[in-house]
Design goal:
Structural class of chain A: mainly alpha
Oligomer: heterodimer
Number of strands of chain A: 0
Number of strands of chain B: 24
Strand content of chain A: under 5%
Number of helices of chain B: 15
Chain lengths: ~325, ~475
């Protein structure tokens, strides 16, 4: 496979994943803003911070109002991480690697782009927002379904998945990092309504409310929440799950190509760090410290994959 | 379904009843409901959009991806018409290859005085770097798209030879795919010859031209300028259908004297490169030094016989519009036969007498740039106003050798589906020809381009033209 093609697949799926994550963040922010209007502005600010676009946002706007944030995160083309920009980039990459995709995957991606262009043509009203967010999630699911349903399980598939999980790991870590303080035992008053809402937001941002209810005894508890999102391998957006997926797909590449590279060592080290920690020890070292470190390493892993597989020459 | 007219209509000739090739189709059509057909046509558009069968239009900021309008009424060619056409095309393609070999070697045709030496030596499309070079398998034009127009029952003219990088073959294939989906019942009723083998034939044909350096199964790749090129869809489509890599210049590099592509596991040599970029951009070391699209050193590898480039560099001279006017001589010189297909009479504006005639008759002529393509920079006299004609006359006087002129042909028409029912529109035809050392293959069908505006003679997609599925009957 061409190095460029591997890179195109990787980034196509990173951008698709990003668009869905941004939609989920907006959804969580919207929910909290509706239920607790006093905290709305702070909540929108943390959404923007989590999306990693605080700088560009403040260049454009002075206040974190719902309409500013929603427009910036969903539609603004000057924001490279807005849903529209991300879908645009995903489709450009898909065109670049068109020969590596089945017709179904390409068409699902193209339709995703067409429907996004349509629903994001005009500013999204408050009443229209739930529909728009649902469309983003649904269109992403269609691409994912076409991918799993029609693609050969070869290196093409591996690079697509690497993109998805490198992006998702970064996203989950950043959601937690922006909100880590609400999970700290020192400042949380278990059972207070503020914490319940904040915890609910974290779970909602990673689509884990349902999972949490199933797995916990119903009591909201910051340690259990952190454990689910960081260490629980059953949760498809947890750091442990993402790292396991990255290692699995890098493993297939190593087998297929008969070659172990630096990125394999980095991925293994990431896996070991998670395995070596319990949620207690993470809280002891400092949750923020742990997450910031994870983000840096995850980023380095992504860059190493690009180098090892010659994405750019 | 009838429209007697001054133009030859492929469906009804000059009369009112369907011609034989359309009899079966008309039998079916007469039982269709027009509203239903229009609905199908709408569906086709959705299908094209979803599949991403779009082309980019240069110089337009917004909506850079456009659909080429597709019309649901097929263009039908009888088996007899087709066999005559293919004989003529084959003869012409064979002559073009011989001509290219000759002008880059001994130039017998110049010595014999059949074409003037300036026409070759001073032609921008003549590549001195190709002098004395023999391409692998002796083939210059691996892929040709001969543009043909029709003016009467037995009147076929070659309009252009398109020997560089003819495009449109993906539309031939997708148009058929669309028709099969929309009207499956039609294909069990009318015996239409298959076109879907084209990608397989193309790969086989390219592989047959592999250089001697190739060991084992030839590695073929398609070279594209990138996703912003107007024909990118076609480039990726062909690579996909052939099962070969689609590469850009920055994926390639000279490794141990061969051209190799950067893969996830290192560099892999390429044997045959089907390039969809112009000669000028092919190699910044040998041609345009500012080109970012090509591969530095590829011409050196080519001259050393390490890679096949399809079509060969320097073939552009064969579809040059000034050379075109000599095609009857060229065919006769190399094949010893009279040309089967006619040439459109052509005035070479470089000749003073011709220029004087052309300037006097601009309102009735079509004037084209010698090196132009895509319908850009041409004048269609009958459709132009006085001001446009005057402006064009100035351009013509300032650089006459840049232009040729031809009479406005009465292009045949085929009905298209409009809001008001069927209406005739002018068409041309581009069959696709594959040339390899052992044979010349012509896919039974081709691209029918249709001017969507009533009366218009410009069929180019960049100028709003559309396409039709093209049927060759199996008989």
């Amino acid at each position: 496979m061409l190095g460029k093609t591997a890179g195109g697949l990787f980034w196509m799926f990173r951008f698709l994943e990003r668009s869905e994550n941004i939609a989920r963040l907006v959804d969580a922010g919207f929910r909290i803003a509706l239920t607790r209007s006093a905290a709305a502005e702070a909540e929108w600010a943390s959404v923007v911070r989590t999306a990693g676009v605080q700088g560009p946002f403040l260049e454009r706007y002075d206040t974190y109002t719902a309409s500013n944030v929603v427009d910036f995160l969903l539609r603004d083309r000057s924001n490279p991480s807005s849903v529209m920009s991300a879908i645009d980039s995903a489709r450009s990459n898909a065109r670049l690697v068109r020969t590596a995709l089945t017709r179904e995957v390409w068409e699902a991606t193209n339709e995703c782009w067409m429907s996004m262009k349509d629903v994001l043509k005009r500013p999204v009203s408050e009443s229209g927002l739930p529909d728009v967010l649902a469309t983003i999630r649904r269109q992403n699911a269609l691409v994912r379904g076409a991918l799993t349903g029609t693609m050969l399980r070869n290196d093409i598939y591996n690079f697509a998945h690497l993109g998805t999980f490198v992006e998702r790991a970064d996203n989950t870590a950043r959601i937690l990092d922006v909100k880590y303080y609400v999970l700290l035992p020192s400042v949380s008053f278990v059972g207070s309504s503020l914490d319940n809402v904040q915890w609910e937001t974290i779970l909602r941002s990673v689509s884990a409310q349902r999972a949490y209810r199933w797995l916990s005894d119903g009591d909201a508890n910051p340690k259990q929440i952190a454990n689910l999102i960081i260490l629980d391998q059953r949760m498809p957006r947890s750091l442990a799950f993402c790292v396991a997926q990255i290692r699995e797909h890098l493993g297939y590449l190593a087998d297929g190509y008969g070659e172990r590279l630096d990125c394999h060592d980095l991925a293994q080290a990431q896996g070991r760090r998670l395995a070596d920690h319990s949620i207690e020890s993470i809280f002891e070292t400092g949750l923020h410290q742990f997450l910031a470190d994870f983000i840096v390493r995850n980023n380095a892993l992504g860059l190493q994959i690009e180098r090892d597989y010659r994405f750019y020459g | 379904m009838n429209n007697p007219s001054e133009f030859f209509d492929e469906l009804s000739g000059f009369g009112e009843t369907p011609r034989a090739p359309y009899a079966d189709y008309c039998g079916w059509f007469d039982r269709q409901n027009e509203a239903q057909l229009r609905k199908k046509a709408k569906e086709a558009e959705v299908f094209f959009r979803r599949t991403g069968i779009t082309f980019n239009v240069y110089g337009q900021q917004e909506a850079t991806e456009r659909l080429i309008p597709f019309d649901v009424v097929p263009r039908i060619i009888s088996g007899r018409e087709w066999s005559r056409l293919t004989k003529g095309i084959e003869q012409r393609v064979r002559a073009i290859n011989a001509f290219l070999h000759d002008i880059y070697h001994r130039q017998e045709i110049v010595r014999a005085g059949r074409v003037p030496v300036e026409l070759i030596a001073q032609n921008e499309a003549f590549l001195p770097q190709m002098i004395g070079v023999s391409p692998p398998g002796g083939i210059y034009t691996h892929i040709v798209g001969t543009d043909i127009v029709r003016t009467g029952e037995d009147e076929f003219y070659v309009l252009e030879d398109n020997a560089r990088t003819p495009s449109g073959v993906s539309y031939m294939l997708e148009n058929r795919e669309t028709m099969l989906q929309m009207f499956p019942e039609l294909f069990s009723r009318v015996p239409v010859r298959e076109v879907s083998d084209y990608p397989k034939m193309l790969r086989r044909s390219l592989s047959a031209c592999a250089p001697e350096a190739c060991e084992g199964k030839p590695v073929v790749a398609v070279l594209t300028p990138g996703i912003h090129n107007s024909a990118y869809f076609e480039h990726s489509f062909l690579a996909d259908q052939m099962g070969v890599e689609l590469v850009e210049g920055h994926d390639l590099r000279l490794v141990d004297g061969r051209i190799a592509m950067r893969t996830t596991q290192g560099y892999t040599p390429i044997d045959v490169l089907y390039r969809r970029i112009d000669d000028d951009y092919l190699d910044p070391l040998n041609f345009n030094p500012t080109s970012m699209l090509g591969v530095p050193g590829i011409m050196d590898a080519y001259r050393a016989g390490k890679i096949t480039i399809a079509n060969a560099p320097g073939t552009g001279i064969a579809d040059d519009k000034a050379i075109y006017s000599y095609m009857p001589e060229i065919v006769e010189f190399y094949t010893g036969e009279k040309a089967i297909l006619k040439n459109v009479p052509t005035w070479r504006c470089s000749e003073p007498d011709a220029l004087a005639y052309v300037l006097e008759h601009l309102p009735e002529l079509v004037v084209k740039e010698v090196h132009g393509s895509g319908g850009y920079g041409m004048l269609v006299g009958p459709a132009a106003n006085k001001r446009e004609i005057a402006a064009f006359a100035d351009k013509l006087r300032s650089k006459p050798s840049n232009y040729i002129a031809q009479p406005t042909l009465s292009l045949s028409t085929v009905p298209v589906m409009t809001k008001a029912g069927l209406a005739p529109r002018h068409v041309d035809l581009r069959p696709f020809v594959l040339v390899s050392p052992n044979k010349i293959e012509i896919t039974p069908g081709g691209l029918t381009r249709v001017a969507m505006k009533a009366g218009s003679l410009v069929v180019n997609s960049s100028q709003g033209g559309g396409t039709k599925d093209t049927w060759v009957l199996d008989e």
